[in-house]
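Severity: low
Component: inverse-folding endpoint
Summary: output formatting inconsistent between runs
Steps to reproduce: submit the following structure tokens with default settings.
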């Protein structure tokens, strides 16, 4: 099992295929791990590995990755892990793709290292919709309870501060609307359509980002094949 060791943090990752690198940030909320891709409407570790060197990672404290939890943890902490993985693999530039929370990880990574990202695919972006913040707090709390059962040394106070750092804002949580307005990275958005992934958030991202395109229908069997080919061609056309 390939891993990146960063002090007390262990990041598990897997590689598929060959070509220009594509870093994946998985769906699954705080449980963002590679296995969620295998249960998605299409699996980029299969479909895109025919064209790209696909690198999939378990985010910290999900799947095979483990790390301490500190009250200062937040979106920047994850971006540092992702940049460290690129450094570990010797990748100066790559494409990125994120599903669900992975879309917000993608935006945070673009903010932290814009020169290293050639293009991004945001699938099912999360964001604050009409139902409010409670569903994201509940999702975090379910994960935190499970983690603390396995690791009782993790302090409840650290988890509370961590949750506030992750889910106390609005929009897509990891970046602001002003950042998206200024972001020149090409983005292809595969729109969400449920309370965790509101269509309104996808449409707003597409409206704000200067170089964004959007696909509204992509999940169902009658259209998913065409969506895969659109993603593939979009990323191929933007290889530096």
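Observed output (run 2 of 3):
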């Amino acid at each position: 099992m390939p891993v990146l060791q960063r002090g007390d943090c262990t990041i598990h990752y897997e590689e598929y295929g060959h070509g220009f690198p594509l870093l994946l940030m998985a769906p699954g909320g705080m449980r963002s791990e590679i296995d969620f891709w295998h249960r998605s409407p299409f699996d980029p570790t299969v479909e895109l590995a025919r064209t790209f060197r696909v690198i999939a990672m378990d985010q910290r404290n999900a799947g095979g990755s483990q790390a301490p939890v500190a009250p200062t943890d937040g979106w920047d902490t994850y971006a540092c892990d992702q940049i460290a993985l690129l450094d570990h693999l010797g990748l100066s530039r790559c494409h990125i793709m994120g599903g669900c929370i992975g879309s917000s990880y993608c935006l945070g990574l673009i903010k932290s290292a814009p020169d290293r990202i050639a293009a991004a695919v945001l699938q099912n972006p999360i964001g604050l919709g009409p139902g409010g913040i409670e569903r994201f707090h509940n999702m975090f709390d379910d994960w935190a309870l499970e983690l603390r059962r396995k690791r009782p040394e993790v302090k409840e106070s650290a988890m509370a501060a961590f949750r506030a750092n992750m889910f106390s804002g609005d929009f897509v949580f990891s970046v602001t609307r002003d950042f998206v307005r200024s972001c020149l990275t090409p983005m292809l958005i595969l729109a969400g359509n449920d309370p965790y992934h509101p269509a309104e958030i996808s449409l707003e991202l597409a409206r704000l980002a200067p170089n964004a395109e959007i696909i509204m229908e992509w999940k169902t069997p009658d259209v998913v094949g065409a969506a895969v080919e659109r993603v593939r061609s979009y990323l191929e056309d933007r290889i530096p």
